[in-house]
Amino acid sequence: MFKIIDGKEVSSYIKNSVKEKALELKNNGEEITLAVIIVGNDPASRVYVNNKKKACEYVGFRSLEFALPEETTEEELLSLIDRLNGDDTVNGILCQLPVPKHIDEEKVIDRISPDKDVDGFSKINVGKLWLGEYDLAACTPMGVMELLKYYDIDVCGKNCVIIGRSNIVGKPMAALLLEKNGTVTICHSRTKNLAEVTSKADILVAAVGRAGFVTADMVKESAVVIDVGINRNAEGKLCGDVDFEAVKEKTSYITPVPGGCGPMTIALLMKNTLIAAEKQKKS
Ligand code: GUN
């Protein structure tokens, strides 16, 4: 019998603990501020940014939104980041990705001060993650680790297979599972005999971006299946990378979409913002 991993429950638990600490700080006259930058009119990015602002409100952070037009130059965006880096009242900065094509995404990510990089995407924070000295690591894979912890799913010695090698999910996911002594394999579009590799996974993480990509034949009996995908199917319905109905019976634990990893990303963003603020206070 499989168990559905409830990302809403775990994300509420995390947000509530952040809320409690934020309230303590507020009672000492300290407010935590997250600056969110969005460039252009991508509708999905707009939804994500609104959800991030709502979460800030919930936990008691101040959020500042900088909605810049599509034609914003790279220089203008970088100078906004410089200004926010130098503003002591701003604890966390994130620029919603993707940015328009005429702007170099890597330059933007690396302009954000590592101490305020609540996405954990900067070279310094990625390097720290791989050295096992991380404090600000990518929110989605950190959210997956929190789900595993909450459900007492031990990673040590397990075969962990990740499908997808993005900088946002696949690669940091590998680092975090490795840190917990998992035996980690990253698969991608050039992987040969993909189903053969994935069907050896005790823990399978799908981060492909294709609806229904993971089918039952790709999954080992009693595996833990974590679906990071957020896609729309032919009917426009939100769905993950895993063919949930076909796969669920084979698993021991499985995350649904929606209600699995999605809410965790935002909860971990709140947690990272708190961590950033606490670190800044000490330095
Ligand atoms: N676009 C898709 N996912 C993310 C994320 O986690 N952070 C940012 N900044 N942009 C994204």
Name the helicity range: 40-55%
Number of strands: 11
Low-pLDDT ranges? none
| Chemical compounds bound to the protein | guanine
Q: Please state the overall shape, judged from the principal axes of the Cα atoms.
A: globular
Helix- and strand-based class? alpha/beta
Mean pLDDT, to the nearest integer, reads 97
Give the amount of beta strand, in percent: 15-25%
**Strands of the largest sheet, in order across it?**
1-11-8-7-5-6
The first-to-last residue Cα distance is 49 Å
The Rg value, from CA coordinates, equals 19 Å
**Helix/strand order:** EHEHEHEHHHEHEHEEEEHEH
Main sheet record:
6 strands, parallel
Descriptive notes:
The protein is of the alpha/beta class and 283 residues long. A hairpin with a 5-residue loop joins β9 and β10. It is globular. The mean pLDDT is 97. 43% of the residues are buried. The protein has a 6-stranded parallel β-sheet with strand order 1-11-8-7-5-6. Strands 3-2-4 form a 3-stranded parallel β-sheet, sandwiched between helices. It is 41% helix and 17% strand. Bound molecules: guanine.
